[in-house]
Amino acid sequence: MALYLITGIGGFIGSSLARALVGRGERVRGVDNFATGKRENLTDILGQIDFREASILDLDAMKSICNGVDYVLHQAAIPSVPKSVLDPIANNQANVDGTVNVLVAARDAKVRRVVYAASSSAYGDTPTLPKHEEMTPSPISPYAVAKLASEHYMTSFYRCYGLETVALRYFNIFGPRQDPSSPYSGVLAKFITQMLCGDRPTIFGDGEQSRDFTFIDNAVQANLLACEAPASQAAGQVFNIATGRRVTLNEMFSALEKLTGYSGTPEYGPERGGDIKHSLADISKAEKHLGYKPKVNFEQGLGLTVDWYRQQRNAPQENKNKEPVSLRS
Ligand SMILES: NC(=O)c1ccc[n+]([C@@H]2O[C@H](COP(=O)([O-])OP(=O)(O)OC[C@H]3O[C@@H](n4cnc5c(N)ncnc54)[C@H](O)[C@@H]3O)[C@@H](O)[C@H]2O)c1
């Protein structure tokens, strides 16, 4: 049976991947240093995974952790645009040096394939919609530059060493276990937790900015397909992972009003510098080469996510982080 290594397994996406793989009866190893992730994200599966607490910046540790691994799902990063602007050196260490370590360790351990959590931020604020993989990237923040540099490292390791790599450019992934508490959190996690508490959320700008919000199960599906796709279709390639539909923040607020029972209005704040106005992916390349098809749409995903945060608010401490109802098939 194949062994999967998930870097950043304590994070939102990493722990969701782990839960899906464990659910399929796969062997899972994980590494995290909890820079942004949480131990609680692993509580219910800790007995079923081989967890190693380490930093991907520790090359010796990564070499030992990669021993016997078939697939690496590389999610570890400091995933924040504002943090990268405040500290570009820490951003580069975690998001570029860390990737090179993972690739060297994977290459030396003769791993079959590395699947990388790339980012739609690579496109920058070019007005063309939808974004497709042939477009010239135009990253703005140090975070976006680092994620793009890591993508290029993926392709380079395929070309130079024959290590099979696949980069998945995620567009605004949301779902259970996304951290709502930090000032850098995703807008959905933040709005849901605020509105469930009856707190007024702030929309920066006029609310007409839009995003291709993608439920976590779709990202999980994309990772599994990226491991399985024939090398001729996937190796050394970059794919958009999204839904191909965009939703404005005002539309998102209206949908959340119904789901959370919040009866107030949002507060409108000044537009935030550096925010892009619209984001929408062309997902035809992933559909064609990986067989990817988003299974959970925005409304279904939002419902599942609100249910999970509501359950977390209501549950006694020991029941927290139990598996939410899933539409995964
Ligand atoms: N969430 C999104 O919408 C989105 C969009 C595009 C790309 N991504 C990428 O997906 C990946 C996962 O993002 P997420 O939303 O789950 O974030 P997250 O912060 O929940 O997860 C990242 C994990 O990496 C771990 N980590 C950070 N530095 C590490 C190090 N040096 N060694 C070991 N572990 C380390 C963190 O502790 C955390 O558990 C990241 O690479 C991110 O850039 C996410």
How is this fold's topology laid out?
Blueprint: E1 3-7, H1 12-23, E2 27-32, E3 50-53, H2 59-66, E4 71-74, H3 81-86, H4 88-108, E5 113-119, H5 142-161, E6 164-170, E7 173-174, H6 187-196, E8 202-204, E9 210-211, E10 214-215, H7 216-228, H8 231-234, E11 237-241, E12 247-248, H9 249-260, E13 267-269, H10 284-290, H11 298-314
Helix pairs in contact: 1-7, 2-4, 4-5, 6-9, 6-11, 9-11
Nicotinamide-adenine-dinucleotide binds at residues 8, 10-14, 31-37, 55-57, 75-79, 94, 98, 117, 119, 147, 170, 172-173, 186.
**Could you say how many structural domains there are in total?**
1
**Portion of residues within helices:** 25-40%
Please state the second-level CATH architecture.
3-Layer(aba) Sandwich
Termini gap:
21 Å
Largest sheet: 7 strands, parallel
CATH-level-4 superfamily name:
NAD(P)-binding Rossmann-like Domain
Mean pLDDT reading: 94
Q: Note the run of SSEs as H and E.
A: EHEEHEHHEHEEHEEEHHEEHEHH
